[in-house]
């Protein structure tokens, strides 16, 4: 609905919380309008058990804010960065999306033909396998966004809508789901796919890239250090809640335009919440000549191991993505 309506909508939300919802019974079930991790709001998580209005009244901090100004400031300062693809999606939604009829058919090519297509048609290569499989071996230059429904969001953030896409899928996955997920954000230009999986590419004798990962225990032992860069790519609100000692912060979608801030002579160790986003970042960095590696489990594993969380000296608004430790 646009930035110009932000304040009025925030005021309306405050009035809904303070007035409309107070008239409703506590056993009323609350159904989330967005999935976990959605950029449509701050801290959207999967509900635990039956999500009722009574539970929201008990555990939702916004419910206890009785001052409108404080409520609005807290609400707006916690919002995640606006995805780059939203303005494009707004135009598509207003004009109406392209009518596809059925899920588009993608040409499945053997390694030799797939290789030729990559070289001749300025393809974006999208590897849909999970982090550990990608680290074990992938086609050079590939972007890794794992086979998951959040492919819609991160594909929208990271892929160029004006360039054709080639995909490598996991052995156990199908082609229809990722095409559907990408089409939700207007990415309907998937042209070719590797017939089979990465094993077919390797067995054809073609070159591939691989890299070592680092456990959170390795990170604990080796950082802080000036020999490597530790990079946090989570959302700003996650960074503000705590980060690994010695980490530098760049929000994942900003990496392509901020790589000059990283020292290419040093290995870059990347973490996120659980490793999914870190693998996206690592794939982008490696495609641009960095020695980058992921931390499996990432922040979840760090906290589960009982390691210390550092807090930024001056937590800022979610739109401020330039902070470092």
From TrEMBL:
This is Metallo-beta-lactamase/rhodanese-like domain-containing protein. Residues 119-210, 224-311 form the Rhodanese domain. PANTHER family: FAD-DEPENDENT OXIDOREDUCTASE (PTHR43031), PYRIDINE NUCLEOTIDE-DISULPHIDE OXIDOREDUCTASE (PTHR43031:SF1). Pfam families: Rhodanese. InterPro entries: GlpE_sulfurtransferase (IPR050229), Rhodanese-like_dom (IPR001763), Rhodanese-like_dom_sf (IPR036873), RibonucZ/Hydroxyglut_hydro (IPR036866). SMART domains: RHOD (SM00450). PROSITE patterns: RHODANESE_3.
